[in-house]
Structures are given as structure tokens and as C-alpha cells.
Amino acid sequence: MESLIAVTGAEGFIGSHLVEALVQDGARVRAMVQYNSFGSWGWLEALPSDVLAQVEVVPGDVRDPGSVAGLMRDAQAVYHLAALIAIPYSYQAPRSYIDTNVTGTLNVLEAARQYATPRVIHTSTSEVYGTARTVPISETHPIHPQSPYAASKAAADHLVSSYALSYDLPVVTLRPFNTYGPRQSARAVISNIIAQLSAGVPTLRLGDMTPTRDFTFVQDTAAAFLAVGRAGAQVLGRTLNAGSGKEISIGDLTEVIAEVMDRPVQIQQEEERLRPSGSEVRRLVCDNQELRNLTGWQPRLALRDGLARTVDWFSHPHNLERYKTGLYNV
């Protein structure tokens, strides 16, 4: 009988791609989507019907211990992706980030203790490092969160590490750098640029063009999750970076996207899209050597090729119409 794998945050961008990859890998998936009165399963509804047929969708809330316990009962592994992730909104509602990102993680850890779950894969973020002090950024780089979002994720990461040390819980933390691809929210820079250009806006409205980021195509990120889930005991208790190892400025990235789409581009910087000066992470570039050495994972898709796939997805009107291209998505 195939393994039962639980996934929190399954309806989201990376979560939906991970669910798809797990099913293709032969797993039986129990996927938590945040309960809502619309009965929406988020991006899980975009999966092929033969894939979705292999998924048990469970509405719930990671903030509720009972929801999490019900999700994880009898699971051989849990991939914990549920989180509030928008940095701008974390300036407006920081307490909600603690409730979801910290308390939600605590609920997953406690359920794993209760059921002796064989493996817990926790999701971190490169934002916990803050602006790079040394490059590329390895897992030994100091933690210096510069936003309430990053602080909540750093707190969750430390909580996970403490459970590994205190209770010998079989956990591994995957720390993705910036992921992009089909189904990403338009609050993210790549999907935001593509959505605006696809909608034919005369002028791109963006924020700071000077920070650099390390971008990984979403299917490569999903493969990194599978790699740490399959790996042996050598990954337990570890935090592992997942990224391409290449950086690009937002300004240069915009030019590459415009070239891929063959669209002229004019840019207007908007004040509301700028982070507070002390909160902007100026530079992120990943050292992925530990993940490669321990699991054999490596990113396969070059940035320009991944952008072409993302543009192709946005080119379908049914996909583009999901986005409010005229609004700033916080």
C-alpha cells in the first residue's frame, strides 16, 4: 500500500505543486486547505482530475490543534507549508503571522509527537537571513530577520530545532530561496511583472529595482521537498538551503522577462511597493551545497527557461483572469 503523506498549506502555490509531485511519485496524499465558506480548494482545483483523484482534501486550519491532529493521523510524513507569507501585510497584521506561522508550527510538532510521525518536513524561508553578510549564503549564515514575517518564520525554525533536540523528533527544515512559476500569487515580483505585461499595461508599476534575489522554478523546489522527504537519517535535525546559487537584480530580471515576452517596458516606481528602508533585504544568493551533497538534488531549469514556462501559463486567458492586474497585491 502506498504511503500516506500529509501536507499543510496544500492549496497554495508551492503546496499545490508539491501535492502534484507527491502523487506522481506514487504517494497517497491527505491535503489540508484552509477552511472557507466558499468551499474553495485554492490551487488544488487547477490540478489534473486524475491527480486530484488521488488526494484526500481536508478543510481545516493549522492554528487549530484538532485540525492538525486529524490531518496527521496515520501519516508516514508531514510536509508543513501552511504559512502567511506576504511581507507587506506582515507590517499591517503582525500578530496573525505569529498565530499562523509559530502556533501553527507548534501544532504540527505536537501532533508529530502524539503520533510518532516518522518524518516532519518544515518549510523555512531565505528571508530569515536578512541582507547577505557573506555570499553565497550557507546554513551557518547568521539569522537576522528584517520583517515581522521573517521574524515569525525564524521563530518557527527555532521551535522546530528545539523539538529535534528536546524530543528527538525526526524533523528536517527546508529553506527555499525565492520560488517562482505557474500559479504564484501576483504579490510576488515575477508573477506581478508577467501579469501586468500580459494585461497590456502601458507602464509597469514596481518597487525597488536594486535588490538581488536567487530564483528557483517551482518544480525544482517541489523536487527539493521530495528529496529531503526520501533522504536517510543524515538530513534529520538539519536545515538545508534550496536555491539556484545565482542572483539577479529586480531591474535586470524585469528586462529578461520583457525579452522573453517580447514586450517593450516602461517602469514607474511606486512608494506603496517599497519596504521600510531598514526592512528591505538587499541581497540573497543561495549556497545549496549541503542539500546537493546529502540528497543529490540540484535545480534543473535555467531562469530564462522557467520564465518562458511561466509566461506560457499566464498567456492562457483563463489563468490571467484570476489576477487583479490593476491592483497592488499586498
From TrEMBL:
Query: Which Pfam family, any one of them, does this sequence belong to?
Result: GDP_Man_Dehyd
Q: Which Gene3D superfamilies match?
A: NAD(P)-binding Rossmann-like Domain (3.40.50.720)
UniProt xrefs under CDD domains:
Arna_like_SDR_e
Single GO term (MF)? carboxy-lyase activity
Q: Which ranges carry the NAD(P)-binding domain?
A: 7-309
- Do you know which InterPro entries this protein is assigned to? Arna-like_SDR_e, NAD(P)-bd_dom, NAD(P)-bd_dom_sf, Sc_DH/Rdtase_CS
What domain of life? Bacteria
Record's protein name: UDP-glucose 4-epimerase
Q: What is the lineage of its organism?
A: Bacteria, Thermotogati, Deinococcota, Deinococci, Deinococcales
